[in-house]
Amino acid sequence: MRSTLSDPVTRDVHVTSPVNVYLTLSLLRRGPGDPTFRRDGSRIWRTSRMATGPVTYAIEPRSATHVRAQAWGPGSDELIERVPQLIGAEDDPTSFEPRHPLLADGVRRFPGLRVPRTGRVLEALIPAIIEQKVLGIDAFAAQRRLLRRFGEAAPGPAPEGMLVTPDAEHWAAIPSWEWHLAGVDPRRARAAQASAKVAAQLERLAESGDDAAVYRAMRSIPGVGVWTAAEVGYRALGDADAVPFGDFHVAKDTGTALIGRRIDDAELATLLEPWRGHRFRVVRLVQLSPLAARDRRGPRMARVDHRHI
């Protein structure tokens, strides 16, 4: 039964092996001030826009294998049906072989780390486009400005300030000067709007389970490349093999952590090949590991404020 603003739809999900709710869902957070994501103790609050409408949901672990989800708003029934995929219960890490002390330590240190599948492609794609070739701090700020200007108030008893991302029609209609005022250059703005115009096709393909077709469709959009598609893959599609080749940090950090030196994308592909099927899982464990050495030498990406260009 659909929720009201005060009465949520509730579901208890019991899984057969541990799920770390926060580490899994934290992949969906776009920066520390993301208005679609809050953490309140052990409870994660998030907003989304389902095919059936906006939704606010709260997910709280009751134990390592028991999760309670509550949802408010028009999209609540649809969201509640997807909770197992959302928390990564359908991600199967059992065939993953660490084969490296740092990765083995990560598996022990972070039990229940999964890859989520939201099924919401545009929701992951537009922020990924905004994050292209700029520092995260600037991309996150641009995303916040756009959501505060064009987002919708979160339904239900959401924490103050939470917003729901615009729908595809509204993304496509944002005028060029609003993107500029948010700090998004014309190239990224065009790619985001082109994505919004084919959002219905992308979401249908995701619903069908044909992830290869989703990737092909995304890559056919001007301005969407391997990196951007992978950023969507490990959020919206639950793809534990989605490697963000071309990332400013992934190749050098993974190489430094696993073989003690900086590498490029070609070497990264070779290094990760033994873990095919779990290559993003390797990248994620390196990102989380306190044992991973970080090479801080070399040039850093400069900050560019596109609002003043």
UniProtKB/TrEMBL annotation:
Keyword DNA damage among record annotations: yes
SUPFAM superfamilies from the UniProt entry: DNA-glycosylase
Keyword hit for Ligase: no
Keyword vocabulary terms for this entry: DNA damage, DNA repair
InterPro entries reported in the protein's UniProt record: Alkylbase_DNA_Glycosylase/TA, DNA_glycosylase
Protein name: DNA-3-methyladenine glycosylase 2 family protein
Gene source species: Aeromicrobium wangtongii
